[in-house]
Amino acid sequence: MTFDEKIMKSCLKLAKRGKVLPNPMVGCIIIKNSTVIGRGYHKKFGGPHAEVNAVNDAKNRGYTLKGAVMYVNLEPCSHQGKTPPCADMIIRENIKEVVIGMTDPNPLVAGRGIRKLKKNGVIVRTGILENECRELNKVFTTLILKNRPYIILKTAQSIDGKIALSNFSSKWITNLKSRELSHELRSICDGILIGRKTAETDNPELTARLNRSPRNPVRIVIDKDLKLKNSLKIFMDKSAETVILHSNRTNKFHRIPGIQYIATRENRQGLDMKDICTKLLKLGIFSVLVEGGNKTLSGFLRDGLYDEIYTMIAPKVIGGGISPFEDFKIDRISRAKELFLNKVIRLDNDIILNYKPKQ
Questions:
Q1: Rg of the Cα trace of the chain?
Q2: What is the pLDDT of residue 171?
Q3: Engineering a disulfide at 272: which of 126, 134, 265, 348 sits with its beta carbon 3.0 to 4.6 angstroms away?
Q4: 214 and 187 in contact (C-beta within 8 Å)?
Q5: Mean pLDDT, range 132-156, rounded to an integer
Q6: pLDDT of residue 59
């Protein structure tokens, strides 16, 4: 690992402390004469940026910034937002060099900060641990470029590609370690989404209890015609919020106290998945784990509303049953959704395949 990479890793570690969505997570370290003189990260939405906090930290410790090198995982902003442009501050403080992990995908920045720095004599180097930097802010990038939540589709299936028997029974196909990983994914997402059939058949709690996480995702259930029974765990358990997505044609119905009901547009396939994404963003849900059945999974796949797929495969053969994307139909191979294999995890005898859309 190079010196630049070592310092950038420290920036990423700092950045993770911030709770700033819909803003990006940013960490900053300033070095002068081989000594770290300032550290900072973006602490909260609307607050000072990481670069400002690092500069203030250096000044509070009695250092001057002239001739220093700044490391930051995201390109410094060049526009006036809730705070002044960081690029202007860097120039004003006579910082000699800025080392950047990734350019800012925000069209308001998108290289403008880098160009401004260079134009004013600041040395700029980019692309240090770029993949790690992009991974850290993947939710922010999706918000900025696609105006929707970051969406993970998750399936648990047999080696012959079945997520349930023909009678919809599915507990448990994968092993305990795979289920623990599922709960870990739940804990890092703002919401977990299923359809009505899954809610009825499995009666799940939809919490991150196996991960022992203090943070449970918001439970989101697609119930177009509001047919779910009030006795289900998603209604009885108060350890997490529950949101019910229903048709905007359904107006008069009995509301369960404490449950949020969101009217959503319909299309030929059921509720409009794009409208669902818009409604979830308005609720402040910026990342969603979809654990639904074949109709729900197929809907997100069909509309291209996904950023990752986790396929958890157990060494079992089910034969006749239900496939995860059974409701997704194409008439020629050229229309298949192409993916690339991002990583492979082995959990005892289960194999976890993580895919991303092929660019």
A1: 23
A2: 75
A3: 265
A4: no
A5: 96
A6: 95
Q: Which of 258, 254, 249, 178 is nearest to 218 (CA)?
A: 258
Q: Taking 90 as the threshold, does the pLDDT of residue 31 lie above it? A: yes
Q: Which residue in the list 5, 51, 97, 200 is annotated as catalytic?
A: 51
Candidates 275, 47, 26; CA nearest to 147 is 275
Helices and strands counted in the chain (H then E):
11, 16
DSSP string of 310-323, one letter each residue: EEEEES----SSB-
Q: Is 232 helix (H, G, I), strand (E, B) or coil?
A: coil
For residues 214-246, b (16+ Cβ closer than 10 Å) or e, as one string?
A: eebbbbbbbbbeeebeeebbbbeeeebbbbbbb
- In terms of DSSP bridges, do strands 339-347 and 350-357 run parallel, antiparallel, or are they unpaired? antiparallel
**Residue 81 banded pLDDT, cuts 50, 70, 90:** low
287 is written with which tokens? 């990342």
Prediction pTM value: 0.90
- Name the pairing type of β-strands 69-74 and 27-32: antiparallel
CB 32 within 8 A of CB 69: yes
Q: Is 51 known to be catalytic?
A: yes
Beta strands in 75-206 (DSSP E): 97-102, 123-125, 150-158, 191-195
pLDDT by residue (tens digit) across 165-207? 887 776 788 999 999 999 999 999 999 999 999 998 889 888 8
Which helix (DSSP H) or strand (DSSP E) does residue 309 occupy? strand 308-314
What's the burial of 252, exposed, middle or buried (CB within 10 Å: 0-12/13-18/19+)? Answer: exposed
Helix or strand holding residue 300 (H, E): helix 294-302
- Asked if residue 128 lies in contact with residue 100, where contact means CB atoms within 8 angstroms, the answer is yes
Q: If DSSP codes are grouped into helix, strand and coil, which group holds residue 76?
A: coil
Q: Nearest 5°: phi and psi at 193? A: -120, 135
